[in-house]
TrEMBL record, chain A:
Name of this chain's protein: Branched-chain amino acid ABC transporter permease
Family indicated by similarity: Belongs to the binding-protein-dependent transport system permease family. LivHM subfamily.
Record membrane topology: Multi-pass membrane protein
Signal peptide location: none
GO biological process: D-alanine transmembrane transport; L-alanine transport; L-isoleucine import across plasma membrane
InterPro entries according to UniProt: ABC_transp_permease, BCAA_transport_permease
Main location: membrane
Keywords per UniProt: Amino-acid transport, Cell inner membrane, Cell membrane, Membrane, Transmembrane, Transmembrane helix, Transport
Parts of the chain that traverse the membrane: 9-33, 53-81, 93-112, 144-161, 191-211, 223-252, 264-281
From TrEMBL, chain B:
Entry superkingdom: Archaea
Protein name from the UniProt record: Probable branched-chain amino acid transport ATP-binding protein LivG
InterPro entries on file: AAA+_ATPase, ABC_AA/LPS_Transport, ABC_transporter-like_ATP-bd, ABC_transporter-like_CS, BCA_ABC_TP_C, P-loop_NTPase
Family: Belongs to the ABC transporter superfamily.
TrEMBL record, chain C:
Keywords: Cell membrane, Membrane, Transmembrane, Transmembrane helix
Segments forming a coiled coil: none
Entry-linked InterPro entries: ABC_transp_permease, LivM-like
Protein name: Branched-chain amino acid ABC transporter permease
Subcellular location: Cell membrane
Biological source species: Natronomonas aquatica
Keyword Transmembrane: yes
Record carries keyword Calcium: no
Pfam families hit by this protein: BPD_transp_2
Length: 292, 269, 331
């Protein structure tokens, strides 16, 4: 009984955690390279999710196509927004960028509301059939897909960061923002690729979240808090930290109802309390070093 | 009380250190910024702290002034262990510092800058700030008087009501010194006070330092790269290299010290 | 959420409603101004403290009942002061860990706490009815109606808000023009300078933060009693951003600007709300979405074109606190 509960928490934690981790990697890279916490990241996720909804449900095409369109359209949107909203503020320091990102968050969220309304939305397809993967623990096809896709993408990010020149310059920029920014065009290019990668991962995370539960305009902002918790837990600028942080946050999230005195309503609160705890004990995060 | 004691001893010709750094070590992760460094500053002296780039001079300043916690070692000021005290307490004890890159309170006027520093102002209490305007006005007048004197001395009086963000680089350096003098310090640590200052103003700053040292008994420790200037201005020089103290002594000795020459030439900068 | 009814037939009533909201947002913006405008504390959890003020004030004044916590039946002033104190106390507890953090961490931490506070009110049904909320009586209604029969009761709220705004304005101005205010400004400009000048920065930040949150608590108390009702739906994060927009519009650092900004904000929100009646092209959800998208664009535009707002003191608004590199001067 107890064991089954623990395994269940771990499995569901893994599912939610991989969404958080996936989004967290992008947020963490943007945080350290563009030098501000992007409060629109959660709404970006939702936008990617809704674009996929448009293709999958409203146009009735295959989910793989929907996934691709969701990713591409969010990448395009994020580049346009970076150009119009963030670029003019590049030298103003993190606070104006942060406030502008809140404005962008409101804008994107309401763009979604305008086109798709406020009700929750689900993707088409009926593969919810649960399979027993471990004794007493069942996962649906969606959930298995989610975990596989998320881990594949994170592995791809790992390859990109460790094996390519782009990855190298991204890491360099994340280690020393001010210095790297001074080197002009090179930095602008790296920054652009950071947005592309961050947005692509955000869209993927949003679509996976929609597959696993459903889409709603406000959900992006709620999950953003959990993602911030993961990023700070792992250390800002550390993509691997965000991955591990995401999984920890996912497990804490799913374990919440089993904590005495708490119920499912406090799932997000738990993740946040963990984040505050980390900020108190080790503000640079468990894997971080390059905060200051 | 302690200050009086040290002063009287100093006047008898006994060289009493007002500030003593003992075996201080400070690391940042893997980086060893200050490595078992020791030196002393005599009361009433002007001491230069020199060394090649990366020798750990600014880190040392940050340790002494409480902005960094050393990994080990002690800092003594007026015979009191001040290691690990927060910067605000160290400043109130009479040991103040300026910053390498001038930190200005851009959107405060020159006068507001000056009036910020004096300690234990009644109006720093929220309650008194709202309900005891009379006392505050009286105190403000007294503080303003002292501030005006200093501004005049530093030839900043014509800029009294200007926002400090509108001052030139050199004027900001002067303002920073004047602002810290409002605390009536025993020791001032100046981190590159002449960097980016034009030669005329540089002379002004040198004169101010000498006058304050002579007339108000302020002890100075100065990080400066201009060797000629350091040798002229300072009574004594401490050389740091690779995080530790390499040599200490009067300028004439230091100038001929082979280790020092080697450190500067060998360091490539 | 703004609760402005479209009864244009009753112009006086409508204008009063709008003015009352200007007053409530004006209070919140004043509270935020001492934190952000004067001290540079990045609090994006405003509505959380408003909620604490409102709920506490409600609990203190409503009649006893078994369906919620307490009901202490105290007169309104006790509720108002209690709400302020509770908001201040919660602010104090939150500030202990977060005030030592860099400004972007403070932002994330406050926005998270705001959500936690809302979740607590939502989930702890024994305390204040959870999602159902509490019914709160407007004070002095009988007194008003017997003394001034036929005069719109909302004038009572206007009088009370003007009184509170004047009191807080005077207090904040005095603080601003005092040694205390000088230290706050120096912290806003450069924390390290304040430290080097011998100021106990943490203590000043704490006092500024707590006092600002107390004013927000007062706003919460008034809001709850004015609406006559309180539930978690009044405390979505969006409201925090409204308060920020009000302050940024009016001008950070300027107390008059904070109130003026609240006025401009309401003009904008109500102006676009009135359009609803005339535009049949899109649904009302879509129109709402357009309004809020516009609010988002407004924030971005403000940052780009007029970061100092209409009456702003902070011209180079963000540079002071923006240098988060600490005192680690290169050697």
């Amino acid at each position: 009984m107890v064991l089954t509960t623990i395994i269940e928490v771990l499995v569901f934690g893994l599912i939610f955690g991989s969404v958080v981790a996936l989004a967290g990697v992008g947020l963490s890279l943007i945080y350290s390279i563009a030098d501000f916490p992007n409060f629109a990241h959660g709404d970006y996720m939702m936008f990617g999710g809704y674009m996929a909804f448009y293709i999958n449900v409203q146009l009735g095409m295959h989910m793989a196509v929907a996934f691709a369109v969701g990713v591409v359209s969010l990448v395009a949107l994020s580049l346009v927004i970076d150009r119009l909203a963030f670029k003019p503020l590049r030298d103003a320091g993190p606070v104006p960028l942060l406030i502008a990102s809140i404005g962008v968050a409101l804008f994107v969220r309401n763009l979604i509301k305008f086109f798709w309304g406020t009700q929750t939305r689900n993707y088409a397809g009926d593969w919810q059939r649960a399979q027993e993967i471990l004794p007493g623990v069942e996962m649906t096809g969606q959930q298995i897909t989610l975990v596989v896709v998320a881990f594949t993408l994170m592995f791809a990010v790992h390859l990109l960061l460790s094996r390519t020149r782009l990855g190298k310059s991204m890491r360099a920029m994340s280690d020393n923002r001010r210095l790297a920014r001074a080197s002009g065009i090179y930095a602008e290019r790296t920054l652009m690729w950071t947005w592309i990668i961050g947005a692509a991962l955000a869209a993927a995370a949003g679509i996976l979240l929609g597959m696993n539960s459903s889409l709603a305009p406000y959900r992006g902002f709620m999950i953003l808090l959990a993602i911030f918790a993961a990023v700070i837990l792992g250390g800002i600028g550390s993509p691997y930290g965000a991955m591990v942080g995401g999984l920890i946050i996912g497990i804490a999230y799913e374990a919440t109802p089993y904590i005495p005195g708490l119920d499912a309503g406090y799932k997000f609160a738990t993740t946040f309390v963990i984040m505050i705890g980390i900020l108190l004990i080790k503000p640079q995060g468990i894997f971080g070093g390059a905060v200051e | 009380m302690q200050t009086e004691q040290t002063e009287s001893e100093a006047s008898e010709g006994v060289t009493e250190p007002i500030l003593a750094v003992e075996e201080v070590t400070k690391t940042f992760g893997e980086l060893l910024a200050v490595d078992n460094c020791s030196f002393e500053i005599e009361d009433g002296s002007i001491t230069g702290l020199i060394g090649p780039n990366g020798a750990g001079k600014s880190t040392m300043f940050n340790v002494i002034s409480g902005f960094y916690q050393p990994d080990s070692g002690t800092v003594r000021f007026n015979d009191e262990d001040i290691t690990g005290l927060p910067p605000n307490e160290i400043a109130h004890k009479g040991l103040v510092r300026t910053f390498q890159i001038t930190r200005d309170l851009t959107e405060m006027t020159v006068m507001e800058n000056m009036m910020l520093t004096p300690k234990n102002q009644t109006g720093e209490s929220m309650f008194r700030a709202v309900f005891d305007r009379g006392t505050i006005d009286r105190e403000n007048d007294a503080i303003a008087e002292r501030a005006d004197e200093l501004l005049e001395l530093f030839q900043l009086d014509h800029l009294r009501d200007e926002f400090s963000g509108n001052l030139s680089g050199g004027q900001r350096k002067l303002l920073e010194m004047a602002r810290m003098l409002m605390l009536e310090p025993d020791v001032m640590l100046l981190d590159e006070p002449m960097a980016g200052v034009n030669p005329t103003l540089e002379n002004d700053i040198v004169e101010r330092i000498e006058a304050l040292n002579r007339e108000e008994d302020v002890t100075f420790m100065i990080v400066e790269h201009d060797m000629g200037l350091v040798m002229d201005l300072c009574d004594r020089i401490v050389v740091m290299n690779e995080g530790t103290d390499l040599a200490a002594g009067p300028p004439s000795t230091i100038q001929n010290d082979e280790r020092v020459l080697e450190a500067y030439l060998g360091g490539g900068s | 959420m703004i609760g402005a009814p479209l009864q244009i037939a009753n112009v006086e009533g409508y204008l009063l409603t709008v003015l009352i909201w200007v007053g409530i947002y004006g209070l919140m913006a004043l509270g935020l101004n001492i934190q952000w405008g004067q001290t540079g504390l990045f609090n994006i959890g405003v509505i959380g403290f408003v909620a604490v003020g409102g709920y506490t004030s409600a609990t203190l004044t409503i009649p006893p009942s078994s369906s919620y916590f307490g009901g202490f039946g105290f007169p309104f002033p006790v509720g108002l002061v209690g709400g302020m104190l509770a908001a201040g106390f919660v602010a104090f507890l939150i500030a202990i860990p977060v005030l030592r953090l860099r400004e972007d961490y403070l932002a994330i931490a406050t926005i998270g706490f705001q959500e936690i506070i809302r979740l607590v009110y939502l989930n702890e049904e024994w305390y204040a009815g959870g999602p159902r909320g509490l019914r709160v009586e407007a004070p002095y209604r009988d007194l008003w109606e017997s003394a001034l029969p036929g005069v719109n009761f909302n004038w009572m709220w206007i009088i009370m808000l003007v009184l509170l705004l004047v009191i807080f304005y005077v207090v904040l101005e005095r603080l601003n023009n005092s040694p205390f205010g000088r230290v706050l400004k120096s912290i806003r400009e450069d924390e390290d300078v304040a430290l080097a000048a011998g100021k106990y920065v943490y203590g000043y930040k704490m006092r500024s933060f707590v006092f600002g949150c107390m004013i927000m608590g007062a706003a919460g108390s008034i809001q709850a009693h004015y609406i006559g009702y309180i539930n978690p739906d009044f405390f979505w994060p969006l409201i925090t951003f409204y308060v920020w927009i009000a302050l940024l519009l009016g001008g950070s650092g300027n107390n008059k600007g904070a109130i003026l900004g609240a006025g401009i904000l309401m003009l904008f929100l109500e102006g676009t709300n009135l359009l609803k009646a005339d535009l049949a092209l899109v649904s009302s959800t879509q129109l709402d979405a357009m309004r809020f998208a516009l609010v988002g664009l407004l924030l971005v535009g403000l940052m780009q074109y007029r970061p100092e707002g209409v009456l702003g003191e902070r011209r180079s608004l963000f540079e002071g606190g923006g240098d988060s590199g600490g005192s680690a001067d290169a050697d």
